[in-house]
Write a structure and sequence with these properties.
heterodimer, A: alpha/beta, B: 179 residues, mainly alpha
């Protein structure tokens, strides 16, 4: 009888704690319930959304051979597993310190030696703890509701979510849990997840100072790499927008503005091939549209349309020449940084993350 | 039945009931959320266009309230401007500022409205082109405007000369990357 009682108690207590774990991610007690609910919704949307269009650039930068819900979810789970709320503070009482740990003998990111404090802009706490610990030569960690988590790699995967992620001002749809808002938040999550990657100088994929004449000049809100956080955030959102069947025109426009803003932070980006192809396709479409208009256009409009067609044909000729000369065209391209994470961490296989998510979806 | 057993049964029952009630509440939240997933908000009626730098739309619906038929003039200055960035902090700029997101929503509303009202399409396209040409508008929105201009011309079957548009190459390049 005693054994039965103990087992019953244990199982009810276990099921109560399991409520705060979802799809391979754990939510700290500092995360408000409504935020947990929204994030679970976002992960559910990511995992279950139907992928009919695959963005080849996203596939290349994320190194995902298959781009679909389960694989994108797995990509995230491998980069963060623990989520704390805005009220969680890194302080003497919450941070664990272990001396005598041997970090990889790789350099720190440029400029990190001089960083005096971890600013809240770096909400990937795992990456920050790892780098700070490496610099001070002590292993840092936190007490996560009784579980000790030490940052032995930027892939420790500890993320702090702020109220800003859920503010109405940043929503693109009235309903906080509409697919469009999930896509908006997921872009931010992919951005932060990228900060869990890298080794040596690329550890944490830290941001660069925006150059002169950039709208954000002087702020650490840009990047020089071709596979950094702003790139992955933009590409993941572009991938999700293209596959959103329920997003309205207004929602897609708002999301596209975010994509444009992220791409604009990549310094000296020069993907001429894609740009040339884009304009060839668009101008050919314009040409076909105007040629169809000609027969029924008024005399006045005919002249204007014909003048425009001449210009389109000239532009297409130039674009074709540029396309042919592309190989020899000199352009400054941002570098692809090594995203392989340093340190000790445990990868999560696709089958494991799928099983975790399927279990969560059944509850 | 001894006292200890009675207490154990009471505790177990309370815990089980608590889990059941909690589970039902979560299920109800999921159901409520799924009911609200449909985000296709009905676009309000559009009144007369004023000039190429302005497009008149009704006040947008917010928080699922019924829209009021109050005309709201959208001018170029309603779009996010470079000057607006000066007041933002590094934390504000870490991710896309809210006013850029709002600018995207405005552009989307214009297009959705012109979708429903064909007589608005030509003026809407002119506005979008002007937006792309305006050096005071933030680059992300200029690129969005240019992207939408090129997309909507064939979709709406409207003539608008764009080859001589005063849109710099970096804005055109940015527009090319957008979905």
């Amino acid at each position: 009888m005693k054994l039965l009682t103990t087992l019953a108690l244990a199982s009810t207590l276990t099921s109560a704690f399991a409520a705060q774990e979802f799809g391979g991610m754990k939510f700290h007690s500092s995360v408000p319930q409504d935020q947990i609910y929204s994030l679970k919704n976002d992960l559910r949307y990511l995992y279950k959304h139907a992928t009919t269009k695959s963005d080849s650039e996203f596939s290349k930068v994320s190194e995902l051979k298959v781009v679909d819900g389960p694989n994108m979810h797995n990509w995230l789970v491998n980069r963060f597993k623990y989520i704390v709320g805005e009220s969680f503070e890194l302080s003497d009482s919450s941070v664990l310190v272990k001396a005598g740990y041997k970090f990889p003998s790789t350099p720190l990111p440029a400029g990190f030696e001089a960083v005096q404090e971890v600013k809240t802009v770096m909400t990937n706490i795992g990456g920050a703890l790892y780098l700070m610990g490496k610099r001070e030569n002590v292993l840092l960690g936190i007490n996560f509701d009784g579980e000790k988590i030490f940052a032995t790699s930027p892939r420790t995967g500890l993320l702090q979510v702020g109220e800003g992620l859920f503010l109405k001002d940043f929503q693109v749809a009235p309903n906080a849990n509409a697919p469009a808002n999930s896509i908006s938040r997921l872009g931010t999550l992919f951005h932060e997840a990228r900060h869990s990657d890298g080794n040596g100088r690329s550890t944490g994929f830290t941001h660069d100072i925006c150059p002169e004449l950039h709208p954000y000049q002087g702020h650490a809100a840009c990047e020089k790499s071709a596979n950094g956080s702003y790139t992955i955030g933009a590409l993941s959102q572009r991938q999700l927008i293209q596959n959103c069947t329920s997003c309205t025109q207004q929602e897609k426009s708002a999301l596209t503005a975010k994509v444009a803003d992220s791409f604009h932070r990549i310094i000296n980006y020069d993907s001429r091939k894609e740009d040339i192809t884009y304009y060839i396709v668009n101008f050919k479409e314009l040409k076909a549209t105007y040629e169809k208009m000609l027969p029924t256009a008024s005399e006045e409009n005919k002249k204007a349309i014909q003048a425009e067609l001449v210009k389109i044909n000239e532009a297409l000729t130039i674009l074709a020449q540029m396309d042919a000369k592309l190989e020899s065209t000199k352009g400054v391209k941002p570098s692809i940084l090594n995203a392989a994470p340093e340190g000790i961490w445990t990868p999560v296989s696709l089958s494991t993350s799928r099983a975790q998510m399927e279990r969560s979806l059944k509850k | 039945m001894n006292r200890k057993l009675k207490i154990s049964i009471f505790i177990i029952t309370t815990l089980v009931l608590g889990v059941v009630i909690f589970g039902k509440k979560q299920t109800q939240e999921v159901i409520n959320s799924e009911k609200n997933v449909d985000t296709k908000v009905e676009q309000p009626e559009v009144s007369e266009l004023i000039e190429s730098s302005k497009v008149v739309v009704n006040k947008p619906t917010i928080n699922n309230e019924e829209s009021k038929n109050v005309d709201l003039v959208i001018e170029m200055k309603d779009l996010p401007m470079l000057n607006d960035i000066n007041t933002l902090t590094e934390e504000d700029l870490h991710h896309t500022p809210a006013f850029v997101v709002e600018g995207g929503m405005l552009v989307g509303r214009l297009i959705a409205d012109a979708d429903k009202n064909p007589r608005k399409r030509e003026e809407t396209l002119k506005f979008l082109k002007s937006c792309a040409e305006n050096s005071e508008v933030v680059p992300a929105i200029r690129a969005l405007c240019w992207n939408k201009t090129l997309r909507q011309i064939p979709e709406w079957n409207v003539f608008l000369p764009v080859m001589d548009a005063n849109v710099p190459q970096n804005i055109k390049d940015l527009a090319a990357k957008l979905p």
